[in-house]
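Quick one: structure tokens for this chain, please?
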Amino acid sequence: MDKTFIDKLAKITSRTAVFENTKLSEYTSFKTGGPADMLVRPKDAQEVRKIVALCKAEKVPFYVIGNGTNMLVSDDGFRGLIISLKDMDNSISFTALSDGESYSVSTSAGCTLARLSSEAASRGLAGLEFAAGIPGSVGGAVVMNAGAYGGEIKDVFEWADVLDENGDIVRLKNEELKFAYRKSIIQEKEYIVLNVSFILKKGDEKSIKAEIKELNERRRDKQPLEYPSAGSTFKRPEGLFAGKLIEDTGLKGFSVGDAAVSEKHCGFVINKGHATSADIYELISQVIEKVYDKTGVVLEPEIKLLGFDE
């Protein structure tokens, strides 16, 4: 990518926020993925807006990532600019609402769910206990309506500031996002989430923290947290469980290279140490094929793929 484009990026952010030929394995929870031509780490919503406008004007392909916990990047990497939201101001604001029982809790898309849940719990605010162990960013969680243990983002979501297709920052409320299982209208419209607000209710701090502790212990017992992964690899088929279908197909521990179906939880694909993205992709493809051959059920990946011919 030419120096002129780099200079223009640096004027929007700073030269220290712009990186060339960056290994995306350092930005994904699978710890795999080739290099991006360039990567930039904006600090606020206005910088994101200006960077996206620059990319469109210069016809430079771009892709926005949060915590990199729900994606698989090809070994070839990405030809273009990756916009990482990791360095966005992730301060959290708490505003009491008129009902005397609730708070509006807002932060940037780059804030992690774990941090937001922990901060809310410390203030005795309930509603995000289910999210404490989800490793993703707030923005990514809204995009896919992340959920666990009976809770979903849509249950507590208030609004999101998004960058729309016209380059405008607009505020969308809960009903406008058309939340469904692991999706929202943001995926369809390809909006970029910048800031998010949730409605949380007053509760007992001790009880909230106890629930978070219990859920995190359940995760440690049942999920392969000791290995790099992208969390649950497949969406749950209606009325069924992906992990059980995979186990019943005889695929517990099934591997391609160092990519493997977790023996602790078959719904997770893990990197046992030196897996490539190609290994993981091939493993996922074979799992889908073998489960379909045995059960007639088509598993759908929950993770996003970047740099693959889909």
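The CA atoms of residues 13 and 28 lie 23 Å apart.
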